[in-house]
Write a structure and sequence with these properties.
Layout: H1 10-25, E1 35-39, H2 53-62, E2 67-69, E3 75-77, E4 80-85, E5 91-96, H3 110-123, H4 128-131, E6 136-141, E7 144-148, H5 156-160, E8 194-200, E9 204-209, E10 223-228, H6 232-241, E11 246-247, H7 255-258, E12 264-269, E13 274-279, H8 290-298, H9 302-309, E14 315-316, H10 341-350, E15 356-363, H11 369-381, E16 385-392, H12 394-397, E17 411-416, H13 422-429, H14 447-457, H15 462-479, E18 482-483, E19 486-487, E20 490-495, E21 498-499, E22 516-517
Parallel strand pairs: 1-10, 1-11, 15-16
Antiparallel strand pairs: 2-3, 4-5, 5-7, 6-7, 8-9, 9-10, 11-20, 12-20, 13-17, 13-18, 14-19, 21-22
């Protein structure tokens, strides 16, 4: 695993990486070198349960979605080549693509779709936050699947194409579990554009193009490797040295190293990606008192943080996840909360607390967390809030068996990737009645908020939905447990070898089927 300890130089790591890649591919011609993608280490491999970028990229290489959430947030055909929605909005009928096979040669049909979506319910997949768990799915014939829902869900198609809704073969209940001997990779069996050739946890995954892939001309590369490098600076070093072809997520403080570099293209787009600084609000927790939540908000200098962390590339945030990129739903009349440390101190004094003293946990996920935590420590101190910083390795931070995991700590930072709809963010992380309530790390339970989120779910009219989301934003402003200092742009970078790459706002959903190598 390419994780830097305090005493190991990045030069040593880079040299090891180059040696590893050279040993793997030799010194053959450039067109024989695989498409090499740099990212952090995946931890959760089950397609129904994965959440982050490297996990999603691994799985979408091997498997296919029924429908594809495209980079512009529209829905495109994939294993389903067409669909219809009943007039009452309660029945969705999908016609499946014919002639598709799994990597083991078995034929894809409606039974696989039914199995996949029912399994999402069985394992409590985060995909259900948009779909709900009250749908039924039925195979009418081998080429037709019908979903039925009990009430209108304006985002149901996004749920069908959810991050975790990758199609498994019927009967597969242990996807991506490593076996032994010749059957080591038997559980990595999808219809996707690549077949997994080898997998070294913590180091790399090696893929070969699926020669029987259903999409003509895809994939455009013969071989692909995912190289796991947890240090964002070492990732950039590897790209600049030629040891990588693409970094899926460049830390914003590293962008200036890549801009203007020979043979490097920097890709940047505004997204809903953001860090959440959150307090737990359950009984006995630090944020149970609303005055404490408000004090943290007033003690946060959002303008300073955006300038320091994103170098001004981001958009200053407030206290809710409804980002400006959700233009149809964003209420720009709600002003960002101003930095007022004196007001923070007043609130704490009035609450009989005086000064707050606690530990502040953060991972090295997007790369900027250490500087963000240090900056918050300084601005909060002026607002009568003292925090001791505690960095936790990203793999441990999101491992709920670790006592210092993101869900259990009193005060922490969580990195959230882009979503196609604000509804997904709200249902995943801020209500108690969701399926995957382990994402509600703040334990926020607000009946008024829950009612509004449910109303938005059933509302198709854009203006009506915007009005609902405006009320949601006000609740977060007044009593919410989170601070979103900025919405970060997505920044990726690739070498001149790479052609045809279109980066998705959630980089793990980037579709490599169109990528070719040359130059």
């Amino acid at each position: 695993m390419f994780v830097l300890s305090r005493g190991v130089s990045r030069l040593v790591v880079l040299a090891a990486l180059v040696a590893l890649l050279t040993a793997a591919v030799g010194v053959s011609a450039q067109d024989a070198v695989p498409f090499r993608v740099g990212m952090t280490t995946p931890t959760v491999l089950d397609p129904a349960l994965h959440t982050n970028d490297p996990e999603t990229l691994l799985n979408r290489a091997i498997y296919d979605y029924l429908v594809e959430v495209l980079p512009d947030a529209t829905i495109g055909a994939n294993l389903a080549d067409s669909w219809t929605i009943s007039e009452d909005g309660l029945t969705y009928t999908f016609t499946l693509r014919q002639g598709v096979t799994f990597h083991d040669g078995s034929t894809f049909d409606s039974a696989d779709v039914v199995w996949t979506y029912n399994r999402l319910k069985e394992v409590g997949s985060p995909a259900l936050n948009l779909m709900g768990s009250d749908f039924t799915v039925e195979a009418v014939d081998p080429a037709t699947v019908v979903f039925t829902i009990p009430s209108v869900n304006a985002d149901f198609l996004y749920g069908v194409g959810a991050l975790q809704a990758l199609i498994l073969p019927e009967g597969q209940n242990t996807p991506n579990e490593l076996g032994e001997g010749d059957a080591a990779l038997a559980n990595f069996n999808g219809t996707g554009p690549f077949r997994l050739v080898s997998f070294e946890p913590g180091a790399r995954a090696v893929f070969a193009a699926n020669p029987d892939y259903w999409l003509e001309g895809a994939p455009g590369v013969v071989d692909m490797e995912h190289i796991y490098i947890d240090d964002p600076v070492a990732q950039v070093d590897a790209l600049l040295s030629g040891a990588l072809d693409f970094i899926i997520k460049v830390s914003v403080d590293q962008v200036n190293r890549l801009e203007g570099a020979d043979g490097i293209t920097v890709l940047e787009q505004a997204t809903s990606q953001h860090p959440v600084i959150r307090l737990r609000t359950d009984a006995g927790s630090l944020g149970e008192n609303v005055a404490v939540r408000q004090a943290f908000k007033y003690a946060t200098d959002r303008l300073l943080i955006n300038d320091l962390i994103t170098q001004g590339r981001g958009v200053v945030g407030n206290n809710d996840p409804i980002a400006p990129v959700f233009a149809a739903f964003f209420d720009n009349t709600i002003e960002n909360q101003l930095y007022d440390p004196a007001e923070a101190c007043r609130l704490l004094e009035e609450a009989g607390i005086g000064r707050v003293s606690t530990t502040f946990y953060y991972p090295l996920d997007f790369g900027y967390e250490p500087l963000l935590a240090q900056t918050l420590q300084q601005t909060w101190a002026a607002g009568c809030i003292d925090v001791e910083l505690q960095e936790v390795p990203v793999g441990l931070y999101y491992d709920v068996s670790n006592p210092e995991n993101y869900f259990d700590v009193q005060l922490g930072i969580t990195g959230w990737g882009a979503r196609p709809s604000p509804q997904l963010l709200l249902q995943e992380a801020y209500i108690e009645s969701g399926i995957a309530t382990y994402y509600n790390e703040s334990r926020f339970a607000d009946p008024e908020l829950e009612a509004l989120v449910a109303e938005a779910r059933a509302t198709s009219d854009v203006e009506a939905r915007k009005a609902i989301y405006s009320q949601v934003s006000q609740i977060f402003l007044e009593r919410g447990p989170i601070i979103i200092p900025f919405f970060a742009p997505l920044v990726g970078a690739h070498s001149e070898r790479v052609n045809g790459l279109v980066m998705a706002p959630f980089p793990g959903r980037t579709d490599f089927r169109s990528v070719t190598l040359g130059g």
